[in-house]
Amino acid sequence: MAKTTAKDAQDLFRALRSAYAATPTKLKIIDIYVVFAIFTALIQVVYMGIVGSFPFNSFLSGVLSCVGTAVLAVCLRIQVNKDNKEFKDLPPERAFADFVLCNVVLHLVIMNFIG
Amino acid sequence: MAEMENAKGSTLRYACGNVLSFFILILIGVLAFSIRLFSVIKYESVIHEFDPYFNYRVTQFLTKNGIYDFWNWFDDRTWYPLGRVIGGTVYPGLTLTAGSLWWLLNSLNIPLSVETVCVFTAPIFSAYAAWATYLLTKEVKGTGAGLTAAVLLAMVPSYISRSVAGSYDNEAVAIFALIFTFYLYIKTLNTGSLFYATLNALAYFYMVCSWGGYTFIINLIPMHVLLCIVTGRYSSRLYIAYAPLVVLGTLLAALVPVVGFNAVMTSEHFASFLVFIILHVVALVYYIKGILSPKMFKVAVTLVVSVGVVVCCAMMAVLVALVASSPTKGWSGRSLSLLDPTYASKYIPIIASVSEHQPPTWPSYFMDINVLAFLVPAGIISCFLPLSDASSFVVLYIVTSVYFSGVMVRLMLVLAPAACIMSGIALSEAFSVFTRSIKFQMPKLLDDSDPVPGDITSANSVVQSNQAKVEKHSAADKSEGTLKERPQKKSKKKEKEPLEKASIKSQIEKKLLVLPLESSVLAILLLVLLGAFYVVHCVWAAAEAYSAPSIVLTSHNHDGLHVFDDFREAYAWLSHNTEVDDKVASWWDYGYQTTAMANRTVIVDNNTWNNTHIATVGTAMSSPEKAAWEIFNSLDVKYVLVVFGGLVGYPSDDINKFLWMVRIGGGVFPHIKEPDYLRDGQYRIDSEATPTMLNCLMYKLSYYRFVETDGKGFDRVRRTEIGKKYFKLSHFEEVFTTHHWMVRIYKLKPPKNRIRGKTKKSKSSPKTSASKKDDRVKKNPWH
Lengths: 115, 783
Hints:
heterodimer
């Protein structure tokens, strides 16, 4: 039983990797960006767990900045993905402009809130 | 050739339709604004009721001292001796809106007073709300439904009641913000554009600034997202609409001082985070499903499910523990009373004591949304016909708001836009069905009379000539109109026609749905009649029911119109005849007005943030004179103000609110017991009343010298003679009573150096006669 699951898992990972290898480089860059943002958020959460959350607004703005960046990047990825049929008529330039605008708003708010 | 002409005609018709609907929208705005001016025309341009006076005072402060002082404003005029940090405890949206409006007008050299701007803020924003409704409904069901819904919203009585000119309260701008936020959410959902998502977050921010009701949004939208996921309607547009909103919205909400960390700490907001996590899981699953082959996906699912269930259980356990560890399970009292309607009356008398927090009665539904109540079910059905993301959102909105309105009268206001949207959809669908049936029947009738000219073959031209006739018919139809809804119908037709000529096939399909001519004409007439009934009711409600400012009262008598301006009289007396630093005690309802109009320090006000303080005042009012004097003296009170309606029959006076004072006081100070004030469970003030009741301060202050008015002491509100008619006050002295005795002001006698016997008979007479108002008081206006 355990052996078959392990084999299944291996198969699965291989399939995932081969499927993922087919994604365009642009999307991969965005993916790395997302992973980095989430990783930064995790570091902050761990730091908060060790040191404490005293300037709570700073902690909150730090984590939400990372989460927000990741979310917005995912949105951008969804919009520029060629396989996504819903956004066929949305040019990538427009998607990127929206992404920048959203980020500007997000980080203006964070700068206000960070204290 | 014919096709080209066709296309040309349709674009022209589209353009005409757009221009027409633009003008209709302007008219709707004018209608929404002007139907709310009855209060200014019938009374005068004043601020209404209680809370608006506080908002007005804050706005005055803002325009005088600027935004930075406003944020740091510590108000020492209220909640004496505690004070109140206004900047951190007030929803600043309304004040900032009116303040910047005033600033803008003044910088354009239009010198309006702050009061004028405040009075007209609500009507202006109701026009915006009507436009926002148009946009929202248009996203759901198209222009025709949008226009109908906008007209309905412009004059729905429930919304009028909160936004007449002078009703300068948070709800005035909040309803606009609410609808607009929903519109942007739907728009984002339909387009999947990050731009609208940003705007949505900003609109949500404005809503958070304006009203505590923003929790409704932050719970309704997650509910809708969850609904979409559960019913298998997940799309990447849903992700774009929701995920940025949560992150940005939470941060923006935390920027508002009154919300602050509550945006992440209280249970009202947890639902959104939970759905946020679920949405990410679902998004990941869909993504992996997209890139994997179905067989591998099945493998992945079995693997993930076995691991995932364990993780989920752990997460849930942590979450439940977190929520359970906070005392009220993380919910604030007001939210809890929403979820459990009996909660407030059981635990928090102060919430239950406010009349607008009571559950509504059935007539109030008919009064406030009128015929919309009958149209809503039809609207729900037509939302289901093709169920889209947007229409499912509207259905969810109406269902939840119906529930909330059933808990609190006040939340009828949230129901009103939903009801308008639904009814707008229902009406426009009905009209389009009936007019379409007429349209299909008309050519047949015409064919019988005169033959079709220029029969140049091809179905196309037949369709065209049909359309020409339809045009003719609709032109005739237009002229018969008497109502405001008429223009919409026109534009609706305009919208529908291009759709119909798109293909003959669909025409044939639709032909199956055609109703008989007579019945559709009759149905249209009936619908117009229904609309007319609604309009009449709305105008009546706006003119008669909801325009009273409650600061100036009128009554119609056999000998004409009486105006009772006692409140302003009393507040003016206070501001002219007392020291600047004197403290005035009254029940909390009159706190805002006293600080705003009389500019005197009050002990408690309508903010009700400190239950103990209110209970202290309640205890003082329900104690005997001496104990009350001691309590008031310890609070440094100089004057006590009571509102008394017994002479003119003003029902919402302090005697009628008195049981709440007893309850709230008794909740903190157990020596005040409610049964002591009731005779056999009945609240009465006649000779049957209990001695505790007849000796308490409120009774004495209300009925002091009352018997002098008519010799019997007949109370017109309670419709009975009062129990104790002749008594003297030992620790208080009457200093002012207004023209109709509606407000009575008493002064605390200074403490004596040494008590020499209890009676001081000579004391009260010289002082009261010194003030000349006393003479005026003696003559009763009714006799």
